[in-house]
Structures are given as C-alpha cells and as structure tokens.
Amino acid sequence: MLRCMRLAAGAVCAVIAVLLQTIYTAPAGATESHAIAMHGLPALPADFTHLPYVDPAAPQGGRLTWGLLGTFDSLNPFIVKGIAVQQVRGYVVESLLARGNDEAFTLYALLARSVETDDARTYVTFRLDPHARFSDGEPVRAEDVLFSWALLRDHGRPNHRQYYSKVAKAEALDPLTVRFDFGGVEDRELPLILGLMPILPRHATDVSRFEETTMTAPIGSGPYRVTAVRPGASVTLTRNPDYWGRDLPINRGLWNFDEIRLDFYREANGSFEAFKRGLYDFRVEDEPLRWHDGYNFPAARTGEVVHDTVTSGMPQPSQFLVFNTRRPVFSDIRVRRALTLLFDFEWINRNYFFGLYKRSGGYFAGSELSAYGRPADTVERELLKPFAGEIPPDILDGSYRLPITDGSGRDRQTLRTALNLLSEAGYQLDGAVLRQRSSHAPLAFEILVTTRDQERIALAYSDSLKRAGIAAAVRVVDPVQFDQRRIGFEFDMIQNRWDQSLSPGNEQAFYWGSEAADQPGSRNYMGAKDPAIDAMIAALLRARDRSDFVAAVRALDRALMAGFYAIPVLNAADEWIARWNRIERPKRTALSGSLPESWWRRPDMTPK
After folding, report:
1. Are 135 and 204 in contact (CB under 8 A)?
2. With contact defined as beta carbons under 8 Å apart, do 561 and 269 qualify?
3. Do 223 and 73 touch, CB atoms closer than 8 A?
4. How far apart are CA 352 and CA 456, in angstroms?
5. Burial of 25 (0-12, 13-18, 19+ CB in 10 A)
C-alpha cells in the first residue's frame, strides 16, 4: 500500500493516483461508471448537469428553520447511545455516493468520482474525487474510507456493524482508490451499501470515545458545518463557503440556504403553536384532525402559510400497533390474530380521521412490492416451498383480507371470532375478565404512546378489547422516554412506522431479521425470529433482475403477514406539508417525495 504525505492541497497524492490509475487494469467483466443501480442501468448519463427534480437556478441564501419534536443529547448519529441530531448525516457528513431520488435505488458520484464492480458483484472499487476535502481543509483519502469502514463495523450502530462485517477484505490500491472484496457473500446490494457509507476523517476522530455521546461538532466533507449548539434545544448548521462539491452535478439546485437551524420542541401542541407564530418554516403534518381543522389561523387564511399535498411513488407510509413477542402474553400467534380482529379500523377512521386513511395488510402498501390481495406467482411459491406449513393458504393465494367491521365499535361477529381463537389459545371469560385457563392470569398488557393521535387510537382500541375481557392500559410518555424504551425493547405494544423504499435491501434484516431481534437499537421491535423471513431477505439480496427481486419482496411480505407480528393501523397515500410562503420548493416532486434540501428562501423575504 502506498502512503502519501498529507499536503495542504493534496497535489502530490492526486498526481500519483492519476499515474497509478493509468496502469491499473479492471478485472474481466468489470464496469467503471459514474453511477450504480441496484437493478438495471442508471437513468442519468455520465454528462448529466443536474437532478431532474431540482431547480439549478434556485436562489441562494437565507435560513431554513426546522421544528422537530423531541430533544437530543448527541451530535453523533452513528452510534446507539444517546438521542442524536440525524441531520448531521448528509448536511455535515457525506458518503462516497449520493442517492438519485427519482429512481428505486441508484447512486451517483459524490466523494467517489467513479464506482467499479463486476457482473456478480463480488467486489466494489471506489475512486475518490481528488478535489474532495473535509471542512478543515484536509483532503479525503482512501485511508479515511478504510478508517470509516472499520470504525463503523466495530463501533457503529447495529445496522452498520451488520452490513460492513460482510466485507472479507478492504485495501487502498492507491491514495485515491479503495477496494472492498466480499468473499463469496451473495448480496448484490453491498456495493451500494458501501457507497452510502458515511466518511469520517481519520485525523479528527477519536476511536476510543466514538461510542460516547458528544456535543462536539463533527468534521465532515458536506455542505454545512455545525456552528452553534444549545443542548437539547437547537443546532445551527452554517454553509461552508469552501465546500468542495458545490459545483458537482449531483449538488446543483441543492443546499440553497446559508443557514439551517434545527429547533426542538418537547410537546406536539407547543410545536404547532410555535409554527403558527412563524418560529419555524415548515412542518410535515401527521395528525389528520389538525390537517383538517387546525390550519384556520390568520396566516393560513391569508395564504402566508401554504398547504402542500405531496404524493410520492414510494410504498405508502404505514402505521402498526406492534406486538413485542419477547413478552409471553404475545408469544402465541392465535392471541395475536385475535387481537388483530378486535381493532376496529372503520370506527377509528370515521370518528377520528374523517375517513382520510386506508390500510393494507402488508408492509409495502400501495406499491408493486405488496403481496396483499395478490396471488403468489410460481417464483414466490418456489421460494416459500420450504416453509409451506407456515404460510396460510389465504395469504398465499391473495384472498386474505383484514377484518372489516360494521363501524359501530361493537361488531359482534369479529368479537365471536376473536373469542374462539382466544379459547383455542387457552383463554376463557371469567365474568367480565378473560383469563388463562391454566393459571387464571388475566390477559392484560400496556400500550406505550407518545403523541395525541397514538393516545386516541390506543384508547379506542383499549375500549374494544374490554368487550373481550382484555385489559389494555394506555401509558403516555414524552418522546425521549418513548425512544429510549423502544430502542431497548422495553414495552408490550407500541405504535410504529417502518418507511419502505422501492428497493428494500439489507435494512430488512435490521427491521425483522432473527439476529436483529436481540440487538437493542435495531428496528426489529416485534422480536421476529422466523427462518422464512430470513430466507426471503436473503433471496431479495441475491436477486439479479427486477422480476426476481419483486417476487422475493412479495414472498417476504407474505411471511411477515403470516406471523401476525403487528396490527395494521393505517397508511397515508399522501404527505401533508404546511410551510410559510417565504419558503419555496421545486415544481417537480421526486419519486421519493419532498426534499427540504432542494427548497429555497424567497429573495424578497428576510428571515424572522
């Protein structure tokens, strides 16, 4: 491995790297490109000038103020400990490649000027842009990439440890080129996963203290630097005037504000009142009642506050009431099926949400990836054949449907069916209390909530459960405690949302893989440990074309539905955004939805 002195401009390293790249010959069948797609080819050519969903002539300057619910005690989003400011990722710390948000999963050159892999994706090579710099002026080099990989593999979040441990060998071919070999691992997503790896400076990162929470501003290569911190209350990001990548095609039309201020609010109503006063610039509304009735204050009536309904091309965000199957009360699938029947969506949707929501039985709602209501094709059936006894026939043939009640809140048919299932599971009514026959213990659990909507849904569900003799206590905690208990799996039931893309991959193992079930900080909140789920995740990772990939994801969806790990609560077809009219956004929306990094401030309006 060649080592090069770090000179201020990095000129010597760059020259050596260029000379070595003229000597280096790519392996047979390898392709070097400006971009890499999970399936198929990138949509944008090597000479693209800007992304199609941005305005490359957007005005620069001003401030964008966010209003975020909760608090923070760390500026390091790459570890489990603490509650971190997530916007550090992207705004401050960059990755080798950047997403094209108009495609299912395609990455374009950023810190890496090019990416190379073979048809089997047994390795990936990244060649860094010789102009890339950290915010302190130091050049980004192969040693920083290797350092970041090893650091996050050994000390990062569980998903990073899981992903990066799949690399069999990592080496710097020269000061600007790094190669990762996968040693026969069947995971075609790995080159892209490594392309999204955050790159941290070796010279400015203390490995011995990396897993500790910190308020020290990180050094990154991104367009912004952390310039002010009020612990737990606000963080200010200021545009780096010397940002190395401001003229890259991937960045034109992005990062338009001189300053980003992140203001944190501990309580939802207080946050909304602050927005009404103009203390922050936009909010993504997640409460239908508020969206329907709450925006009647003067600024909204005069048009100073604009309402945007944004429809993306992604699977619809879906909310679930999640069973923690680590708890004995939910270990029996018959109990979980019965409790699913007792959730009266029709009553809740009509009385609380003005009929604005629908719900799907699966985890990829509203997309081609969803298996709900679709019969399994021959590829899916072949994938699921070893687990045929675990997948109910109605889920396999697509006839399974969520229960539809009469909307009265007292549907007798669903109650009878649920009680029959509970009887099979060993429970019987003792007066008004449902008890286990063997121990006489009542069927009781706690629903942990943190928002007004979560509380209303939980209380309505608790009332429905009372009719079956089941006691479900609703406990309201603040967002900080909720996050801490969710991270540590310290709950019976919570409401949760898993955001999905059109190219689900390694994160699925983090959501519901068996290994993740015992990893605090993972998102396998239900504690699923199912060989069928693990096998379907492996199948989607090795799929070489889109049709096989879609079949594998649908098979995964069926395995998840068959486990009854969560009660589908609702899914939203649209994203609701309210913004003060001093903030503008491009006319065209990306496939992934709204992107605040593509917005700008009207030049005729100064920040408040």
Report:
1. no
2. no
3. no
4. 8
5. exposed
* Burial class, 245, CB count within 10 angstroms (exposed 0-12 / middle 13-18 / buried 19+): buried
Q: And the tokens for 72?
A: 């923070």
The CA distance from 528 to 563, in Å, is 8
Position of tokens 């917005």?
A: 599
Length of the chain: 608
Confidence at residue 29, expressed as pLDDT on a 0 to 100 scale:
65
The distance in angstroms from the start CA to the end CA of the chain is 53
Token duo for residue 65 = 């103020």
Measured CA to CA, the distance from residue 230 to residue 233 in angstroms comes to 5
Report how far residue 312's alpha carbon sits from residue 502's, in angstroms, rounded to the nearest whole number. 11
Tokens in use for 27? 């392996």
Q: What digits encode the pLDDT tens for the residues 299-315?
A: 999 999 999 999 989 99
pTM of the model: 0.84
Structure tokens that stand for 459 in this block: 């209380």
Contact 253, 595 (CB under 8 A): no
Average pLDDT, integer, range 59-63: 97
Phi, psi (deg, nearest 5) at residue 120: -85, -10
Residue 398 backbone class (left: φ over 0; alpha: ψ -120 to 50; beta: rest): left
State which amino acid sits at residue 97: L
Output Rg (C-alpha) for the chain, integer angstroms. Answer: 25
Instruction: Report how far residue 100's alpha carbon sits from residue 9's, in angstroms, rounded to the nearest whole number.
Output: 30
**Residue 525 exposed, middle or buried by CB count within 10 Å (0-12, 13-18, 19+):** buried
Q: Is the pLDDT of residue 141 over 60?
A: yes
- Cα gap 237→217, rounded to integer Å: 10
Three-state helix/strand/coil letters over 120-182? CCCEEEEEECCCCECCCCCECCHHHHHHHHHHHHHHCCHHHHHHHCCCCEEEEEECCEEEEEC
CA nearest neighbour of 419 among 465, 371, 383:
465
Q: Do 149 and 87 form a contact (C-beta atoms < 8 A)?
A: no
Residue 325: which H helix or E strand, with range?
none
Helix (H, G, I), strand (E, B) or coil at 528: coil
